[in-house]
Amino acid sequence: MTEAAPIYDAAELTRYIETRYHARHRRQLTSLVKLAEMVEDLHCDDVGVPKGLADLLAEMVGEMEVHMRKEELILFPAIRRGGGPGIEDPLAAIRADHDGHAREISRIRSLTHDMNPPRGACTSWATLYAELAELVDDLTEHIRLENDVLFPQFDGVSK
């Protein structure tokens, strides 16, 4: 279960997202790429191995870093200033990124059989799927907070 953000003030919510989600995603993805590579290498001939997962996660590292930097350097500072002219463009760009992240989550679920390791999977494989489930839960809640709680406060707002 994901924890709900206790803050609804836009500026405070941006800080919460940065400290709770951005920092965690950076740690999660780096670790998951290495673990996925190991599982794919060790079990390359096994039925159900998530072939291509390490590559997908490696792509996500770069995409997520760019996404989070756009939020940290452009969108969140604008939100902390109360919005203003032009905020709709970064909002639209971030929402489009979120759509891409949702597609990546779908691919992760497909490659991992919804993060269910096969019977008799080694500890590394089971750990990979458990940590992937945490990433998916965190990323889903991160996107929900932004799309459903934070961004609507700035829709149609050009001061």
Automatic annotation (TrEMBL):
Q: Where is it localised?
A: Cytoplasm
Describe the location of the Hemerythrin-like domain by residue ranges. Answer: 19-153
Matching entries from InterPro entries are given as: Hemerythrin-like (IPR012312), RIC_family (IPR019903)
Pfam families according to UniProt:
Hemerythrin
Keyword set for this entry? Cytoplasm, Iron, Metal-binding
Mind listing the GO molecular function terms for this protein? metal ion binding
According to its record, what are the GO cellular component terms? cytoplasm
Q: Which domain of life is it from?
A: Bacteria
According to UniProt, the name of this protein is Hemerythrin-like domain-containing protein
